[in-house]
Amino acid sequence: MVKSITANPQGQFSVEDYAVFTIMLGISTAIGVYFGFFQKKKNQTTEEYLLGGRKMKTFPIAISLIASQLSGVSIMSVPAEMYSYGAQYWIIAPTMILITMIINYIFVPVFYNNHITNCYQYLEDRFSPAVKKFVTFTYVLNIYLILPIFIFIPALAFSQVSGINIHLINGIVCGVCIFYTMLGGIKAVVWTDVVQGLIMFVSCFLVVVIGVAKIGGLSEVLERAAAGNRLEIFDMTLDATTRQTFWTASVGNLFLWTGYLGLSQSCVQRIVSVPSMSHARAALWIFCAGFIVIMTLNCFTGIVIFAKYFDCDPIKVGLVQKADKLLPFFVQDVVGNLKGMPGVFISCVFSAGLSTMSANLNSLAGLIYEDYIRPFKLFKHTDASANTTMKVLILVSGVYCIAMGLIVEQFGHILQMVVTIASVTQGAVMGIFCLGMLWPWANKHGALWGSASSVIVMSWIIAGAQIAISNKEISYPPKPTSVDGCYEYGYNVTANDFPMLEAPQDEAEFSIYNISFVWYSTVGTFMVFVVGIPVSYFTGSQDLRNFRPKLISPLVHWLLPEEVLQNDFSLKAENEKLNPEPIKEWTFTAHEEEKYKERLGVIEQTL
């Protein structure tokens, strides 16, 4: 109860909690050491470091996707969203089925048919190097803006339950993440994600089950949530300025998450690291199922928190500074008496943050090296020099994330801030890939002007909205909470002490700045088409007679001239004749193996 926590507003982390947390960090470090030292010979090539030699297993990749996409922001901020604004956001869970279908049948075939390892390489093949450089720059900028938030959120939770300085713990845990990401490459990242993903699931499940039991059962939770208007899911309002409706949660998140999951290099790097397209599709469907389960648990956690404090809001009485700190407060309150449980929860939040950070650090290092360092030929390119350079990039990026924690600490509502920052470029990325894969007539001019226009327009809209928010012209007041029962816990407060917040009523005409932040990616995507298609037309549409069908999605091959498709099929047939049975693996006899080793020894001595 609230009463039990007031004597210790900072919480009380026990020896058992520290032990659980230390074990989690120790396992992550051990995996990095294993792949960095004990498998060092297999980890020498750049492809092995970034893609695991394209031999990664389906299930670990699926779990890695789940762990890295459900960041600490999701673990902490989604329950806060449910507590403050109700269950509308849960619609993202079933929407993931449609998102997975789009990625599997539009994007994945194109990546595999063109042997893509860097998803932005597709833009150079389809349009031009200039288009690739522009979009790559927006991605790198976006990741550097958003990555410090992902790792700062777990430090926020740890500080809430232990009282340790938030920047100290941020630096320590970032250091562990940098260590195992540098040493082990993609294999270390994936296998730590597997461990961390399991910790996330177990933690979310235990917190929900124990919380429901302490409140008095599932029926009591649902009854309190319904009384507080927290179970409304199908709000069919067609007002684009409403913060969350069925349409924003489904259509808006469809564009946001399709781009985030299917067209982010950190995700594509995993998708193409499995042996075949069928393995990739299977991994994505497993991810979809896991995402729905954990997101549902996450959302329901917020409902349980509301039911726990339905008659005494801890934010209003000053026990919690903001909604994003509610979950660690709830965990300490409900399961703090169970030794080790707060440690399990903190391990869960840190697992989510570490998974996201390591995934992005690994992909970011490869992208920066290939696009911004290697072309300048500052030194001789070898696998060893490439791997060393990428490790330095990971180290520098990690230190930057630690330093940026000082700024992230000043942010307000974290989920809204993350979506807003991502949306500056997410719509442009989603739009340009869809333009390239679904509209054969698009050319390089249309792609460049379309994506640039999207980034410029979205920057203008978002900047205007942030100014309006700072001037209190735009606000999203949370649903009402009660303090009627606070007197039972020793707080002499009434509802009159907390005036009802209302959104500003503007009599003026509709303003683009007022649209919900969830629509930003959707608007950005359509801007690419609105500008890109006309520009392509007026600058000379793509000549389909000299077009490679593999560069667009198989779903729209019917738009291509018949002779283009026939030429593509004839080329395939000719290649099959030249190489009817490609050798997959050479097998030596025992005598040949001995001779082969002798020859290698002679070569090494000569060198």
CATH homology superfamily name of the largest domain: Sodium/glucose cotransporter
Low-confidence stretches: 1-11, 504-508, 569-592, 602-607
Assigned CATH architecture of the largest domain:
Up-down Bundle
Mean pLDDT, to the nearest integer, reads 78
| Biggest pleated sheet | none
Please give the number of β-strands.
0
Order of SSEs, N→C? HHHHHHHHHHHHHHHHHHHHH
Tell me the fraction of residues in β-strands, as a range.
under 5%
Question: CATH fold name of the largest domain, please?
Answer: Sodium/glucose cotransporter
User: Helical content, roughly?
Assistant: 55-70%
Count of distinct structural domains: 2
**Overall SS class:** mainly alpha
CA-based shape: globular
Q: What's the Cα radius of gyration?
A: 26 Å
Helix tally equals 21
Specify the CATH class of the largest domain. Mainly Alpha
- The N- and C-terminal alpha carbons lie at a distance of 72 Å
Explain what you see.
This protein is mainly alpha-helical. The protein has 2 domains: 5-496, Sodium/glucose cotransporter (Up-down Bundle); 549-602, no CATH class. 68% of the residues lie in helices and 0% in strands. It contains 21 helices and no strands. The protein has helices spanning 2-6, 15-38, 46-51, 58-69, 72-85, 92-113, 121-126, 129-162, 166-215, 218-227, 246-262, 265-271, 277-308, 326-335, 341-373, 383-408, 414-438, 444-470, 520-538, 562-578, 590-606. The longest helix has 50 residues, at 166-215. It is globular and about 80 Å long. It starts with a helix and ends with a helix. Mean pLDDT is 78; it is low at 1-11, 504-508, 569-592 and 602-607. One of its GO terms (cellular component) is plasma membrane. InterPro entries: Na/Glc_symporter_sf (IPR038377), Na/solute_symporter (IPR001734), Sodium:Solute_Symporter_SSF (IPR051163).
